């Protein structure tokens, strides 16, 4: 019988495999990052920002709900099974994006993509946390998010480049067929479940159990709820950047290839930096990492309204990526600090439910403000909310 050990080194092969799989999960998001707003305007003639951003709204709501149930089901169904189911939902997505005859089909594709991301990304990050135990949890999350978001950035660049050379459809979406197929095969053949690692860690844990993981993570527990609101605002501003940045760049007369590069800077810096910031969250006060990360994001967002050239947008992308990298692995590491191993999956699922609901709220809020008051007003509004969230962390989190 296999001996269960906790630690990054002790579980190196499984950990490395899950890093590769999460890169494919991130690649599925990268397919849309730079070119879907262009597809909406060029092929479907959608001018309303609210209607255009509907694909992000449906994605965010779907992913948020699935995140919650992934956390609830992780112990009963097992992490590997959830990962496999996630890949099955990913398989039709690139074909829908290639052949969609109307925008409603694109929205349907994003519902399936939201299910894929909620199951696959959540399961992959939970399994890495399970494998390493409590010593290098921040590093584990940092490596996971590095792989996922670096892949988002690289694929956003690739799809922008392919779209400029060969058109918005179908060639950029062929990448997704490969990501989903390889991800499913690797999971089926080589991934092992990690529930036994959770049991082993729980034997040594002294963290008190929560009365209700959902309500404590959402409202009652001061630190958990402060972290959760910041997660929601973080993805609210990411939803704004996802939908508005390509449109803003189009109004500045950048080419599709340039838009691909500029939309890739932010997630690429975000992904790369988490190799460092994940480990920082194991060493330094998580509260201050979250505070400064949210404040840095707020400054970068507001700066978008004054940017005009390629260099300025590149520098803003770097600042946004660094700010998000400070908070993203720290969120999950901090949530894990306040929850027992047996309740961790549900608490993480609750956090990820609210965090990814931020995509939908951000896209909807951004679209409404942009249609009524203009893109600049929506940018300033989201930047202000992000700054406010930083101070909630400062005054509410222990």
Number of helices: 17
Using only CA atoms, what is the Rg?
20 Å
Shape annotation: globular
In total, the number of domains comes to 1
Transmembrane segments: 12-31, 51-70, 82-100, 106-127, 139-159, 171-191, 289-307, 313-332, 353-371, 377-395
Keywords: Cell membrane, Membrane, Transmembrane, Transmembrane helix, Transport
GO molecular function, one term: transmembrane transporter activity
Membrane topology: Multi-pass membrane protein
Structure description:
By secondary structure, the protein is mostly helical. It has one domain (11-193, 212-396): Up-down Bundle (Growth Hormone, Chain: A). 83% of the residues lie in helices and 0% in strands. Helix 1 runs parallel beside helix 8 (137-166).
Question: Which characteristics define this entry?
Answer:
398 residues, Growth Hormone, Chain: A, mainly alpha, MFS transporter
């Amino acid at each position: 019988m296999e001996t269960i050990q906790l630690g990054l080194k002790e579980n190196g092969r499984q950990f490395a495999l899950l890093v590769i799989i999460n890169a494919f999960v991130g690649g599925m998001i990268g397919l849309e990052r730079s070119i879907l707003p262009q597809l909406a305007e060029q092929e479907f003639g959608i001018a309303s920002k609210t209607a255009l951003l509907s694909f992000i709204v449906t994605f965010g709501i779907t992913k948020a709900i699935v995140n919650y149930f992934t956390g609830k089901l992780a112990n009963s169904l097992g992490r590997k099974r959830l990962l496999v189911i996630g890949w099955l939902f990913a398989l039709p997505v690139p074909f829908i994006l290639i052949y969609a005859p109307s925008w409603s089909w694109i929205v349907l594709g994003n519902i399936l993509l939201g299910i894929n991301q909620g199951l696959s990304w959540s399961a992959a990050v939970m399994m890495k946390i399970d494998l390493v135990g409590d010593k290098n949890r921040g590093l584990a999350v940092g490596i996971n998010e590095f792989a996922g978001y670096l892949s988002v950035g690289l694929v956003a660049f690739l799809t922008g480049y392919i779209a400029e050379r060969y058109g918005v459809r179908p060639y950029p979406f062929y990448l997704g067929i490969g990501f989903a197929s390889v991800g499913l095969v690797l999971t089926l053949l080589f991934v092992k479940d990690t529930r036994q690692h959770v049991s082993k860690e729980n034997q040594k844990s002294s963290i008190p159990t929560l009365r209700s993981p959902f309500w404590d993570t959402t409202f009652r527990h001061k630190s958990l709820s402060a972290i959760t609101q910041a997660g929601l605002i973080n993805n609210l501003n990411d939803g704004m950047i996802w939908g508005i940045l390509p449109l803003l760049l189009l109004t500045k007369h950048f080419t599709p290839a340039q838009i691909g590069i500029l939309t890739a800077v932010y997630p690429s810096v975000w992904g790369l930096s988490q190799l460092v910031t994940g480990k920082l969250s194991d060493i330094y006060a998580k509260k201050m990492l979250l505070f400064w990360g949210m404040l840095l994001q707020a400054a970068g967002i507001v700066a978008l309204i004054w940017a005009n050239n390629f260099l300025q947008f590149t520098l803003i992308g770097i600042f946004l990526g660094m700010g998000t990298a400070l908070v993203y692995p720290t969120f999950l590491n901090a949530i894990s600090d306040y929850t027992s191993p047996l309740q961790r999956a549900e608490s993480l699922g609750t956090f990820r439910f609210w965090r990814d609901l931020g995509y939908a709220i951000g896209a909807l809020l951004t679209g409404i403000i942009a249609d009524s008051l203009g893109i600049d007003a929506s940018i300033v509004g989201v930047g202000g909310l992000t700054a406010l969230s930083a101070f909630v962390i400062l005054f509410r989190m222990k």
